[in-house]
Hints:
The two termini are 24 Å apart. β4 (51-57), α2 (60-68) and β5 form a beta-alpha-beta unit. Strands 7-8-10-11-12-9 form a six-stranded mixed beta sheet, sandwiched between helices. The longest helix is centred in the C-terminal third of the chain and has 15 residues, at 237-251. α5 crosses α10 (237-251). The chain is an alpha/beta fold. It is elongated, with a radius of gyration of 19 Å. The chain folds into two domains: 15-110 and 236-257, Udp-n-acetylmuramoylalanyl-d-glutamate--2,6- Diaminopimelate Ligase, Chain: A, domain 1 (3-Layer(aba) Sandwich); 115-232, NIF3 (NGG1p interacting factor 3)-like (Udp-n-acetylmuramoylalanyl-d-glutamate--2,6- Diaminopimelate Ligase, Chain: A, domain 1). The chain has helices at residues 17-27, 60-68, 90-101, 111-115, 121-129, 157-168, 196-201, 216-223, 232-235, 237-251; strands at 15-16, 40-43, 48-49, 51-57, 73-78, 105-108, 132-140, 143-155, 173-176, 182-187, 206-209, 226-229, 254-257. It binds zinc ion. The site of zinc ion (ZN) has 5 residues, from loops.
Amino acid sequence: MNVRVRRSAASKNKVSRDAIVSLLDKTLRTAEITDRSVNGLQVEGAAEVSKVGLAVDACLEAYEKAHALGCQMVIAHHGMIWEGIKSVRGPIYRQIEFLIKNGINLYASHLPLDLHPTLGNNAQIAKILGLRELRPFGVYHGAYIGFEGVFPRPVTVKSVSDAVKKAFGGPITTLPFGPQKIKRAAIISGGGTAALPEAVEKKIDLFITGEPDHSNHHLAQEGKINVVYGGHYHTEKPGVIALGDFLSKKFGIESIFLDVPTLV
Length: 264
Ligand SMILES: [Zn+2]
């Protein structure tokens, strides 16, 4: 049940940055998906890449890890640039300075990675939890970013929260206000609480997301729905890890998950 955090086999293969960027852009449909994140290559580094580091958050600690491990590229779910850069000073300056000095490329994929039908955070969570008959769920920026599905046999909230804890390792919060026997569940990784009314409306038995929101308590209680929060960071690891495995297989280069959990 554990999310596979593996370091791909050591390899001397090198591939051009442009080939990686173009495969990512095509696979994730980067240009087609509206997002606050500036998805795609955010900072240009070395032209050739033999090792890629995958991170949930673009931050100095992840870049330092990547550099120490010999990566020439970091791919982050939460990139550094959101709706453009207004100034290059303070933390942003230091991040850019570190990346450029050390020749590290930074590629970001926010919503394109959440919603991807096989590599995405939500598709991966559904697969790990064994949900079937997946259908799009959770409209955000005009597109579905999550999935709903059914368990092969009815399950309890406790069994799902235990499975989420075991698979992703984050702190679990549960609102047990829905049916005892759960058949239908909906998933939005990370900060997905805006989709809770949609889950209530669609009479979903259990809504799984990452980060709790105070206002959800009464909404869930009055909507008679169960909610399991698996942590923003922790529910956004599976797509990032799957993307690393995908690149390793495609190009025969190394990929490594840069685990830098947040305290939020
Ligand atoms: Zn997120």
